[in-house]
Write a structure and sequence with these properties.
376 residues, alpha/beta, Dihydrodipicolinate Reductase, domain 2, 7-stranded mixed β-sheet, disordered N terminus
């Protein structure tokens, strides 16, 4: 049996080794979330001690540097100062895998592209020992068999993490994972999973016309580039599917529908025509909101996940209930389980925004480091 002094020495030696070991990171996609991630990596002294950026790319150009980039400021300007190459995904993946084999270092591939082509590369990276982190919902909502491959344990010890894909910066996925790993059984996951829709309905409660509320959400950067992606309910549907699979439920996207708030005649028109056409449903929405207000209720876009299926759509809730009092772009998710059946675990906070989404990605990155480097 080791003495206290010996145990202390082992701890501090391990801690020192951890501090000296940086994880090599490649960031695919340097738009809204990827760009913010690079910004946070560069401006935080703590993060600089733990991560070394070995490359990044946008849809056209890639910058790869095995000994690390000293400055990230800022990605697009670096393309002009460093040798770059066209973004060819197979070549990038091959380079990352070779870098991991030759360097023997911890390598993380962060996908912030939202590209199906890139999402299909994950399994190959994972098989070769490269960890994958993504805020994208694409890979997780492909066929169940593909998701099972992503989360499977491998001899290489590589890890797939996707916290920000379902809750931005909120610890929803990790909470469910922890509960399941501890032997709990999830019975229901429900709540508001779209900060965009919280904001939209909050504006309607203030008397703002539906068309103006959608436009305001778009101008403030709360919506997807095409607001119909939010109004369709597809964003919430995918988040629900991700949470269902995380809870251990085997489900496919085709097994349930999401209630679409986009008028049929505006689904295929240009964005300008879409915004102009929304005025035709202003009166309908104003009446809908007023009718619920008279009953002491408000509207919320809610997703509910149970072992037997998923439901996604607009529901009326009491105005003084936890969901009814949500403000801004907040999300609120409640998790009921065998051990938390009477009083569910509830998680609330911002469900949209590049800063908190990047924080969710960083949480996954740090989890991987702690799991694979700090072996003391």
């Amino acid at each position: 049996m080791k003495s206290v002094a010996e145990e202390s020495k082992i701890y501090h030696v391990g801690k020192a080794a951890f501090a000296e070991q940086k994880a090599d990171v490649f960031v695919a996609g340097i738009g809204t979330v990827g760009g913010e991630l690079l910004n946070q990596l560069e401006t935080s002294p703590l993060l600089q001690k733990e991560y070394r950026l070995i490359g990044f790319c946008n849809s056209k150009l890639a910058l790869l540097k095995s000994d690390g980039l000293r400055s990230l400021s800022f990605s697009n300007s670096l393309f002009k100062k460093q040798p770059v190459q066209p973004t060819r995904w197979n070549e990038i993946v091959r380079w990352i895998i070779n870098h991991r084999k030759e360097s023997g270092r911890n390598v993380l591939f962060v996908d912030a592209t939202g590209s199906r082509e890139v999402a299909l590369l994950y399994v190959n990276l994972l098989k070769e020992g490269v960890h994958v982190v993504t805020p994208s919902k694409l890979a997780n909502t492909m066929p169940q068999s593909y998701f099972d491959e992503l989360v499977a344990k491998r001899p290489s010890g590589s890890i797939f993490k996707y916290e920000a894909a379902a809750g931005a910066g909120l610890p929803v996925v990790s909470t469910i994972e922890s509960m399941v790993n501890n032997g709990d059984e999830i019975q229901e996951i429900s709540g508001v999973l779209s900060g965009t829709m919280t904001y939209l309905f909050g504006q309607l409660e203030k008397g703002v016309l539906f068309s103006d509320a959608v436009r305001k959400a778009y101008d403030n950067g709360y919506t997807e580039p095409d607001p119909r992606d939010d109004l369709s309910g597809e964003d919430v549907a995918r988040k629900c599917l991700i949470l269902a699979r995380t809870a251990g439920f085997k489900m496919e996207r085709e097994s349930f529908k999401a209630e679409d708030q986009t008028p049929d005649e505006l689904k295929q028109v240009s964005l300008d025509d879409f915004f102009n056409g929304l005025k035709n449903v202003d009166a309908e929405w104003s009446k809908r909101v007023a009718d619920q207000k008279a009953k002491g209720k408000v509207l919320r876009y809610i997703g509910t996940v149970r072992p037997d299926g998923i439901r996604v759509g607009v529901q009326a809730v009491d105005s003084d209930s936890p969901l009814g009092t949500l403000k801004g772009a907040d999300n609120m998710i409640s998790i009921r389980s065998r051990y938390y059946s009477q009083s569910p675990i509830t998680i609330q906070g911002p469900g949209a925004g590049k800063e908190v989404t990047a924080q969710g990605v960083l949480a996954d990155m740090r989890y991987i480091i702690l799991q694979t480097v700090a072996k003391y």
